[in-house]
Amino acid sequence: MQKAAWIYTLLAFGITWGIVLALYGLYLRSVITLAELNLYYTAGAAGPAVAAIVCVRVFYGATGWQKFTSQFSFRHIDPKCWLIIFSPLLLFGLGMLFYPLLKGHWYSFGAFLETQKLYTASAVAAWLLPYIVYAILEEIGWRGFLLSHLQTRCNAFQSARWLTLIWGLWHAPFFLFRFQFSPFIAFGFFFSLFVGTVILSHLYNQTRGSVLATMLFHLANNLASCFDKEIVVAFTSTGFVLLAIWIFRKYKGQDLSEQPRVQNDIFV
Hints:
Blueprint: H1 3-28, H2 34-40, H3 46-69, H4 79-85, H5 87-103, H6 109-115, H7 121-153, H8 156-170, H9 183-206, H10 211-224, H11 231-255
Helix pairs in contact: 1-3, 1-7, 3-7, 4-10, 5-10, 5-11, 7-8, 7-10, 8-9, 9-10, 9-11
Protein backbone atom coordinates (compact mmCIF):
# COMPACT_ATOMS: atom_id res chain seq x y z
CA MET A 1 0.00 0.00 0.00
CA GLN A 2 1.00 3.62 -0.48
CA LYS A 3 2.22 5.60 2.51
CA ALA A 4 -1.11 7.45 2.73
CA ALA A 5 -2.97 4.14 2.96
CA TRP A 6 -0.72 2.87 5.75
CA ILE A 7 -1.12 6.09 7.73
CA TYR A 8 -4.86 5.99 7.14
CA THR A 9 -5.13 2.41 8.42
CA LEU A 10 -3.12 3.14 11.56
CA LEU A 11 -5.21 6.24 12.29
CA ALA A 12 -8.52 4.45 11.72
CA PHE A 13 -7.50 1.62 14.04
CA GLY A 14 -6.01 3.96 16.64
CA ILE A 15 -9.03 6.24 16.88
CA THR A 16 -11.64 3.48 16.97
CA TRP A 17 -9.73 1.11 19.24
CA GLY A 18 -8.79 3.97 21.58
CA ILE A 19 -12.41 5.10 21.97
CA VAL A 20 -13.96 1.63 22.24
CA LEU A 21 -11.34 0.19 24.60
CA ALA A 22 -11.53 3.26 26.84
CA LEU A 23 -15.31 2.88 27.05
CA TYR A 24 -14.95 -0.84 27.73
CA GLY A 25 -12.55 -0.02 30.56
CA LEU A 26 -15.16 2.31 32.06
CA TYR A 27 -17.71 -0.49 31.81
CA LEU A 28 -15.41 -2.95 33.59
CA ARG A 29 -15.03 -0.41 36.40
CA SER A 30 -18.84 -0.04 36.59
CA VAL A 31 -18.61 3.63 35.63
CA ILE A 32 -21.07 3.01 32.78
CA THR A 33 -23.63 0.26 32.22
CA LEU A 34 -23.67 -2.23 29.35
CA ALA A 35 -26.59 -0.34 27.81
CA GLU A 36 -24.58 2.88 27.96
CA LEU A 37 -21.54 1.13 26.49
CA ASN A 38 -23.65 -0.11 23.57
CA LEU A 39 -24.73 3.47 22.94
CA TYR A 40 -21.48 5.33 23.55
CA TYR A 41 -19.42 2.95 21.41
CA THR A 42 -21.10 4.66 18.46
CA ALA A 43 -18.31 7.23 18.77
CA GLY A 44 -15.88 4.57 17.56
CA ALA A 45 -17.36 4.89 14.09
CA ALA A 46 -15.45 8.16 13.78
CA GLY A 47 -12.18 6.28 13.22
CA PRO A 48 -12.43 5.53 9.47
CA ALA A 49 -14.04 8.89 8.65
CA VAL A 50 -11.67 11.09 10.65
CA ALA A 51 -8.65 9.17 9.36
CA ALA A 52 -9.83 9.67 5.77
CA ILE A 53 -10.37 13.40 6.23
CA VAL A 54 -6.97 13.87 7.88
CA CYS A 55 -5.12 11.88 5.22
CA VAL A 56 -6.83 13.63 2.32
CA ARG A 57 -5.92 17.01 3.79
CA VAL A 58 -2.34 16.05 4.64
CA PHE A 59 -1.41 14.07 1.53
CA TYR A 60 -3.58 15.57 -1.23
CA GLY A 61 -4.40 19.15 -0.26
CA ALA A 62 -7.24 21.26 -1.64
CA THR A 63 -7.45 19.47 -4.98
CA GLY A 64 -7.65 16.08 -3.32
CA TRP A 65 -10.27 17.37 -0.91
CA GLN A 66 -12.43 18.61 -3.78
CA LYS A 67 -12.26 15.23 -5.51
CA PHE A 68 -12.80 13.38 -2.24
CA THR A 69 -16.02 15.30 -1.55
CA SER A 70 -17.18 14.77 -5.15
CA GLN A 71 -17.72 11.11 -4.22
CA PHE A 72 -20.80 12.13 -2.21
CA SER A 73 -23.05 12.11 -5.26
CA PHE A 74 -26.00 10.16 -6.70
CA ARG A 75 -25.08 11.15 -10.25
CA HIS A 76 -23.84 7.79 -11.56
CA ILE A 77 -26.22 5.48 -9.71
CA ASP A 78 -28.21 3.64 -12.39
CA PRO A 79 -31.41 1.58 -11.83
CA LYS A 80 -29.47 -1.68 -11.47
CA CYS A 81 -27.32 -0.13 -8.74
CA TRP A 82 -30.41 1.15 -6.95
CA LEU A 83 -31.78 -2.40 -7.00
CA ILE A 84 -28.57 -3.70 -5.42
CA ILE A 85 -28.52 -0.86 -2.89
CA PHE A 86 -31.96 -1.80 -1.59
CA SER A 87 -31.52 -5.56 -2.06
CA PRO A 88 -31.02 -6.08 1.72
CA LEU A 89 -34.52 -4.72 2.35
CA LEU A 90 -35.97 -6.80 -0.49
CA LEU A 91 -34.35 -9.94 0.90
CA PHE A 92 -35.54 -8.95 4.36
CA GLY A 93 -39.10 -8.75 3.06
CA LEU A 94 -38.76 -12.13 1.35
CA GLY A 95 -37.46 -13.67 4.56
CA MET A 96 -40.39 -12.23 6.49
CA LEU A 97 -42.83 -13.77 3.99
CA PHE A 98 -41.25 -17.20 4.43
CA TYR A 99 -40.97 -16.85 8.21
CA PRO A 100 -44.48 -18.17 9.04
CA LEU A 101 -44.01 -21.14 6.69
CA LEU A 102 -41.04 -22.28 8.77
CA LYS A 103 -42.06 -21.07 12.22
CA GLY A 104 -45.83 -21.43 12.07
CA HIS A 105 -46.48 -17.79 12.93
CA TRP A 106 -45.57 -14.33 11.70
CA TYR A 107 -42.51 -12.58 13.06
CA SER A 108 -43.49 -10.35 15.99
CA PHE A 109 -41.86 -6.93 16.02
CA GLY A 110 -43.69 -6.24 19.26
CA ALA A 111 -42.01 -9.22 20.93
CA PHE A 112 -38.66 -8.00 19.61
CA LEU A 113 -39.18 -4.55 21.13
CA GLU A 114 -40.19 -6.19 24.40
CA THR A 115 -37.11 -8.44 24.44
CA GLN A 116 -34.81 -5.48 23.73
CA LYS A 117 -36.66 -3.33 26.30
CA LEU A 118 -37.36 -0.70 23.66
CA TYR A 119 -40.37 0.84 25.36
CA THR A 120 -39.96 4.48 24.32
CA ALA A 121 -39.11 6.42 21.17
CA SER A 122 -35.84 7.56 22.75
CA ALA A 123 -34.88 3.96 23.51
CA VAL A 124 -35.57 2.96 19.90
CA ALA A 125 -33.53 5.94 18.66
CA ALA A 126 -30.60 4.97 20.90
CA TRP A 127 -30.80 1.40 19.63
CA LEU A 128 -30.86 2.51 15.98
CA LEU A 129 -28.11 5.12 16.31
CA PRO A 130 -25.07 2.78 16.02
CA TYR A 131 -26.52 1.06 12.93
CA ILE A 132 -26.96 4.40 11.19
CA VAL A 133 -23.75 6.11 12.29
CA TYR A 134 -21.48 3.16 11.54
CA ALA A 135 -22.99 2.75 8.06
CA ILE A 136 -22.25 6.38 7.24
CA LEU A 137 -18.87 6.96 8.85
CA GLU A 138 -17.31 3.60 7.95
CA GLU A 139 -18.03 4.10 4.26
CA ILE A 140 -16.39 7.52 4.22
CA GLY A 141 -13.14 5.77 5.09
CA TRP A 142 -13.16 2.18 3.83
CA ARG A 143 -14.64 2.86 0.40
CA GLY A 144 -14.21 6.63 0.20
CA PHE A 145 -10.46 6.50 0.86
CA LEU A 146 -8.83 3.10 1.32
CA LEU A 147 -10.43 1.10 -1.49
CA SER A 148 -9.13 3.35 -4.27
CA HIS A 149 -5.62 3.10 -2.83
CA LEU A 150 -5.78 -0.69 -2.71
CA GLN A 151 -7.16 -0.82 -6.25
CA THR A 152 -4.19 1.17 -7.51
CA ARG A 153 -1.84 -1.71 -6.62
CA CYS A 154 -4.21 -4.69 -6.99
CA ASN A 155 -7.24 -5.62 -9.06
CA ALA A 156 -10.68 -5.13 -7.56
CA PHE A 157 -11.08 -8.71 -6.30
CA GLN A 158 -7.66 -8.78 -4.66
CA SER A 159 -8.37 -5.38 -3.11
CA ALA A 160 -11.64 -6.74 -1.72
CA ARG A 161 -9.72 -9.53 0.00
CA TRP A 162 -7.21 -7.10 1.54
CA LEU A 163 -9.96 -4.74 2.62
CA THR A 164 -11.87 -7.62 4.22
CA LEU A 165 -8.82 -8.50 6.31
CA ILE A 166 -8.22 -4.89 7.40
CA TRP A 167 -11.88 -4.16 8.01
CA GLY A 168 -12.39 -7.40 9.92
CA LEU A 169 -9.42 -6.82 12.24
CA TRP A 170 -10.65 -3.29 12.89
CA HIS A 171 -13.76 -4.86 14.48
CA ALA A 172 -11.69 -6.78 17.07
CA PRO A 173 -12.63 -4.68 20.17
CA PHE A 174 -16.33 -5.17 19.44
CA PHE A 175 -15.97 -8.88 20.21
CA LEU A 176 -15.33 -7.92 23.85
CA PHE A 177 -18.97 -6.93 24.36
CA ARG A 178 -20.93 -6.47 21.13
CA PHE A 179 -20.41 -9.82 19.37
CA GLN A 180 -19.95 -13.34 20.63
CA PHE A 181 -16.64 -15.01 19.79
CA SER A 182 -15.71 -18.51 18.69
CA PRO A 183 -13.62 -19.84 15.79
CA PHE A 184 -16.82 -20.70 13.91
CA ILE A 185 -18.33 -17.26 14.51
CA ALA A 186 -15.06 -15.57 13.49
CA PHE A 187 -14.98 -17.55 10.23
CA GLY A 188 -18.60 -16.67 9.50
CA PHE A 189 -17.94 -13.04 10.33
CA PHE A 190 -14.99 -12.74 7.93
CA PHE A 191 -16.82 -14.67 5.21
CA SER A 192 -19.90 -12.44 5.43
CA LEU A 193 -17.64 -9.38 5.50
CA PHE A 194 -15.87 -10.59 2.35
CA VAL A 195 -19.17 -11.16 0.54
CA GLY A 196 -20.30 -7.68 1.55
CA THR A 197 -16.99 -6.17 0.46
CA VAL A 198 -17.33 -7.69 -3.02
CA ILE A 199 -20.81 -6.19 -3.36
CA LEU A 200 -19.70 -2.81 -1.99
CA SER A 201 -16.66 -2.79 -4.31
CA HIS A 202 -18.98 -3.44 -7.25
CA LEU A 203 -21.26 -0.58 -6.23
CA TYR A 204 -18.35 1.80 -5.66
CA ASN A 205 -16.72 1.02 -9.00
CA GLN A 206 -19.95 0.78 -11.00
CA THR A 207 -21.03 4.22 -9.76
CA ARG A 208 -17.54 5.64 -10.49
CA GLY A 209 -16.87 6.16 -6.82
CA SER A 210 -20.18 7.05 -5.17
CA VAL A 211 -19.76 6.80 -1.41
CA LEU A 212 -23.46 7.58 -1.02
CA ALA A 213 -24.28 4.35 -2.86
CA THR A 214 -22.16 2.28 -0.48
CA MET A 215 -23.52 4.14 2.56
CA LEU A 216 -27.10 3.34 1.57
CA PHE A 217 -26.34 -0.34 0.96
CA HIS A 218 -24.47 -0.59 4.26
CA LEU A 219 -27.36 1.07 6.09
CA ALA A 220 -29.98 -1.12 4.40
CA ASN A 221 -27.96 -4.20 5.34
CA ASN A 222 -27.63 -3.06 8.96
CA LEU A 223 -31.37 -2.51 9.23
CA ALA A 224 -32.23 -5.80 7.51
CA SER A 225 -30.01 -7.85 9.81
CA CYS A 226 -30.88 -6.35 13.19
CA PHE A 227 -34.12 -8.22 13.84
CA ASP A 228 -34.48 -11.98 13.33
CA LYS A 229 -31.06 -13.69 13.45
CA GLU A 230 -32.16 -17.05 12.04
CA ILE A 231 -34.55 -17.33 9.10
CA VAL A 232 -34.44 -13.75 7.83
CA VAL A 233 -30.66 -13.49 8.18
CA ALA A 234 -30.35 -16.84 6.39
CA PHE A 235 -32.36 -15.43 3.46
CA THR A 236 -30.37 -12.21 3.27
CA SER A 237 -27.03 -13.99 3.64
CA THR A 238 -27.86 -16.52 0.93
CA GLY A 239 -29.01 -13.72 -1.35
CA PHE A 240 -25.77 -11.79 -0.80
CA VAL A 241 -23.62 -14.85 -1.54
CA LEU A 242 -25.50 -15.43 -4.81
CA LEU A 243 -25.21 -11.74 -5.68
CA ALA A 244 -21.45 -11.71 -5.01
CA ILE A 245 -20.99 -14.83 -7.15
CA TRP A 246 -23.01 -13.22 -9.95
CA ILE A 247 -20.88 -10.05 -9.75
CA PHE A 248 -17.64 -12.03 -9.95
CA ARG A 249 -18.81 -14.27 -12.81
CA LYS A 250 -20.23 -11.40 -14.84
CA TYR A 251 -17.56 -8.74 -14.33
CA LYS A 252 -14.50 -10.81 -13.32
CA GLY A 253 -11.97 -9.82 -10.71
CA GLN A 254 -10.19 -7.04 -12.58
CA ASP A 255 -12.82 -4.38 -11.91
CA LEU A 256 -15.87 -6.20 -10.45
CA SER A 257 -17.96 -3.81 -12.55
CA GLU A 258 -18.61 -2.56 -16.07
CA GLN A 259 -16.73 0.62 -15.25
CA PRO A 260 -12.95 0.62 -14.66
CA ARG A 261 -12.14 0.25 -10.98
CA VAL A 262 -11.62 3.52 -9.12
CA GLN A 263 -7.93 4.08 -8.37
CA ASN A 264 -5.92 6.54 -6.29
CA ASP A 265 -5.73 9.07 -9.13
CA ILE A 266 -9.09 10.36 -7.87
CA PHE A 267 -7.04 12.36 -5.37
CA VAL A 268 -4.21 13.44 -7.65
